[in-house]
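Q: Hi! First time doing this. I have a protein sequence and I read that you can turn it into a structure. Is that right? Here it is:
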Amino acid sequence: MQRMTKHWIKLASFTPLMVGMLVSVPQMIVIPVVLAQSSQSSQQTEAQKLYQEGERLRQLATRESFQQALAKFQQALPLFRATDDLYGEADTLDSIGLVYIGVGQPQQALTFFQQALPIYRELGDPSGEANTLNIIGSLYLDLGQPQQALTFYQQALPISREMGDSTEERLSLRSVEASTLNSLGSVYVDIDQPQQALDFLQQALPILREVGDRSGEANALNNIGNVYINIGQPQQALTFYQQALSISRTASNSTEERLSLRAEEAETLDNIGSVYSEIDQPQQALTFYQQALPIRKEVGDRYGEATTLNSIGSVYSDLDQPQQALPFFQQALLISREIGYRFEEANTLNNIGGVYRDIDQPQQALTFFQQSLPIHKAVSNRIGEAVTLYNLTGVKITLNNLPEALQDIQTAIKIIEDIRGQLILPESRTTFFASVQSYYKLQIDLLMQLHQQNPTQGYDKQAFNLTERSKARTLLELLIESKTNIRTGAAPELLQQERTIQNQISTLDKRRIDLINARNNQATSQRLESLDTQRETLQTQYRELQTQIRATSSAYAALQYPQPLTLEQIQQQVLDENTVILSYSLDRDRSYLWLVTKTSMTSYQLPDKKIIEDLANKKVRPQLTNPRTTRNDFAANTTELSNILLKPVLEQIGNKRIVIISDGALQYIPFGVLPDPRAAEYQPLLVTNEIVYLPSASTLQTIRNETQNRPIAPKTLAVLADPVFSSSDQRVNQSTNPPANPQTNSALPLAAQNLDRAARNARGEWDRLTGTRQEASTILNLVPEGSRLGYFDFQSSRDNALSNQLSQYRFIHWATHGFANLQKPELSGIVMSLVDQNGQQENGYLLLEDIFNLSFNADLVVLSACQTGLGEVVQGEGLVGLTRGFMYAGTPRVVTSLWEVPDTETATLMSKFYTKMLQQNLRPSEALRSAQLEMFRSKSWFAPYFWGAFTLQGEWR
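A: Yes, that's right. Below is the predicted 3D structure, encoded as structure tokens:
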């Protein structure tokens, strides 16, 4: 029979969980219901009546109404079959399946949808077929068979993209297409292919908005958030969850849509709770989970109820209340097994194992972890598998089964490496890698324990190779990417969108600068907050666009990333006879140090991370930034850390060059200023040893490979100094062409007061640094006129910094203010002129993202400004700041500062540094050391505050 009219029923789907986070399939799937023609027989009329009564009861979504609905459908089904009403039969089979889903019996539901599917195919009903395929896929996903689910979703997608016979049919298919794309995305999240997941979810979102499916839109936003939290970007995830929460709380005139939105609200609350758990705010997380749980029960979402119970239990575990956690886990396990929710069953078993581990019952913990592992494998939850292997490793170490523990953690790290390799954006690779550094730390510690038991088996060598593999991986890959035009072969429309977003961000930045320079008041603060929100939205769009550009780029597809070097390769390719590496790894229970020479490697155990970082942060850093410290005070506060870090290796380092590969808070410490334990009184290590810094040894070899055959820049030195920061600067009122010749301005007196090169005045403005002009003039005069370039005053601008002119110079020197944003390193930068010659404000902030777009031929970049060596300490990557930006731009060595440096003394130091480098022909690292020691030996500038902040990262040759 031909269907005359269609109504639409929306199906609330289920919520499979990845480890510690919610991942759901589309909340709304459309299935058709037939309205009988008026000429149908009495049997058909009765069947139709029973069906509609059953639908009314089913949508009440209570256990009693589900049972009553099932009875109605079971009466209707034979009547539809008796009258050969295929539409009625198929729709009734679907509805019976929905009832079984509602009462938590997915396996029973599956049999009815499988009966309905061939009927829709026989009828030639693409909407019914595609919807049923989607539902079957959802059921397989919840039954822990994601690959089987993927098969059905992939069948549904091309059907949903067919052209319907009517506007209504086309709209229906468009809705199904969006649901299918969302479902495909959720499967790829479940099987830990985040990039594939994002591709599908980003296709689904605009279609869901187009068809007005608010619940589906909220669900897709939730799924995108889930991708970001799973790759270690919880704040990015929170942005999407908050959008989803706002949509899920909107009013609706439809009872069914209200129920669906209510279910989505619970899911979103649970997801927001997972963000707060991730960022170590368990009480805040608990608040959101406790809001979600009653809604889960209200809408009859047993899958979600199990998920939230598990989340609440996890919070109590994080709060060191394992006995409080256990009942929630046990409830979650009971529900998961009752409804066949294998994802959540595996997670819960893992969490229960964690409880028994925490209460010192390792054998009991082992039992639960071992039950969890095969389920994770069966449902292709690779993150869950890695987490459980990590937990098994810890328990087996406790039980002194070290060989098996090593096998488990090696398998876990292989999974981690596989997942990381699928990520396209460097930012995603960085944050994901940071989130799993504990895996590498655990294996390093285990290998070193095995080394103590079997010192001749090379376990310490394996541990060193692993620590090298765990550091600066994204930088290593970025250095390769820097020589490739990633945009080659990308779709032109994507490149145009990129330019549009870049222009929008630039416009916002200019408006923001205008506000910053305006008077401070509440209205300005609110407007700044609004602009920051808009910028974050544009940045999100820009990141998503970068993913698409890379995915379509032939140049990117052809990239071959290098593997980190092994110990033997480092000894052969990186080191020379006069250079040693000190590589540090800090961890919770024990830390380690490896001394690597051209021919040997020795390892040492150090105190735990907290002891070392407390000394660095609470005793050493305050002394470094104190201009009035005395020799006795400095030595008293820094000797303990120096002894820990250096004393074990003193006999082997002699007076050789030391390459420091540090970790954690040690990245804020210049080793050269630490007391040499060999000296009777305070003497900085720099006296006997030249010191350089690397994020990893492998990055240096990559830098050498990328720069070894490049032609030498034709000119010597470019300097950007003494910018104009304010319209009140006297230079604005002078000639429209102020003098820029360094020789004619060299007599400008130094500032009467010592301004830090990151200091703002009481009005919140950047103060002029007159010492930078003297500094720049002095070093420019070391170079013949035809081989130098000086940008001063208004010419010391962002536009000139970004011009191709600087690529002509071997040495590029900035002398101005610098600033570090430790939370968002992409907003770290250098301050150039903020006004033009007429006093009009302009964008003078050279940010990290600007530097990544530069292309230099320079041998050295010097940032004679404050905090330019700082950045966010990202686990596995080190300091993510300006240094890596300039290395990406093509510079093999960068000199930066680790604290706010004084203007006058910095000018003196830089003058000495360039004199030694340009006139005495010392290597940059050698010249910097010599200049710093000269400052140290003067009576006025003993304190490391005046000279110790500057360090050289990169090539020492």
